[in-house]
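Hi team,

As requested, here is the filled-out complex form for the uridine-5'-diphosphate run. I kept the field names the same as last time so the parser does not choke. Let me know if anything looks off before we queue the next batch.

— J.
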Amino acid sequence: MILVTGGAGYIGSHCVMALLEKGYEVVVFDNLSTGHIETVERLKQYGKVEFVQGDLLNKQDLDKVFEKHQIDAVIHFAAVALVGESVENPQKYYVNNVCGTINLLGKMLENNVKKIVFSSTAATYGEPNYIPIDENHPQNPINPYGMSKLMIEKIMDDYSKAYDLRSVRLRYFNVAGADSESRVGEWHDIETHLIPNVLKSTFVGGKQFKMFGDDYNTKDGTCVRDYVNVEDLAQAHLLALKYLDNGGETNYFNLGTKDGNSVKEVFEACEKVTGKDIPVEVAPRRAGDPASLVADNTKARQTLGWEPKRTLDDSIKSAYKWENVLQG
Ligand code: UDP
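And here is what came back:
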C-alpha cells in the first residue's frame, strides 16, 4: 500500500487518482484543514482507498496508519503552503511542515519503510540568478514556506545517509489544471492562485480579477511563471516511485515545462477558453513575487523519463470544467 499524506488536497488527490488508475492501493492521511472529505469520497469510487483523518503532529494518528496497514512507500504532500501567510506566521510553517515531516520520517523508520516521494517547491530556489532554473541553482528561499521545504530536503539528505531512507524531492513550479474528467480538481476555500482566480471572476458573485503588477522587467511587464499540468505532475510521482522501487538513490528534480507564460498571457488564454471578455484591474505588486520562474526540466526527463504532455490551454480548459462543477 502507498501512504499519501495530504491526499484530500489539490495535488495529492490527483496523485491518488493516478495511483488508483495503475492499480495501487492507497491510504490517504489528511487532517482536512484545507483538503475536503468530499474529495476522499470521490476518490473511493475509483479504487481501493482507506482514509485516516489525522495530523502529522499527532504521533498516535500516525501509529493508526502504520499499525493497520503494510506501507511500501510514502508520498508526502501534507503541508501548509501559502507564501504570504508563512511570512506573517512562520511558526505555523516550521511546526507543521518541518516537525510534521520529522514525525512522519520517524514513524517510517520505526516501521522500516524506506522510500518517500516529497512535494518540494521552486520556492526553495528563491530569487533566481538565471533562467531556466536547473537543480544546481543555489537554494536561497526568500520566505518561510520555501525555507521549511528546504529544511525538509536537508533533513532527508541526512536520513538517507544515516538510515538509508531514500527520498525523491520533486520541486514543483506552478501547478495548474484539474482532472480531465472533472473527478477531482483545485478546491481551496481561500483561493490565491492565478488561474482559478481569473476563472472564478467570470461567475456570478465572483470577485473582480486583480493583476498584481504590470511593471516587472519581463516581456510584457507581468510576472512569468512555468505552469505545469497537475495530471502531468501526478505522473511524475508515479515515475519517482518506480525510480525508488528500482533502487534509485536519493535525488531531486524540477517539475516544470520549460515554458514561461506571463500573467497577461494566462489571462488572455482564460478569455479565449471561456469565450468571455473578463474585466481586470491592475493592482500593486504582491510582496515576494519574483519576476520570472521557469524550470529546466532536463533532469526529470532524462532520469525519470517524465514528459509533460499537456499545454497551458489544456490546463485552463480542465480548470474551467472543474470550476463549473464547484460552482454547481
Ligand atoms: N496573480 C495575480 N492575481 C491573482 C493571483 C495571482 O496577478 O489573483 C499573479 C501573481 O502575482 C504571480 C502569478 O499570478 O505573478 C502566479 O501566482 P500564483 O499565486 O498562481 O502562484 P505563485 O507563483 O505565487 O506560486
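Two things worth flagging: The chain has a mean pLDDT of 97. The longest strand covers residues 115-121.

Thanks,
J.
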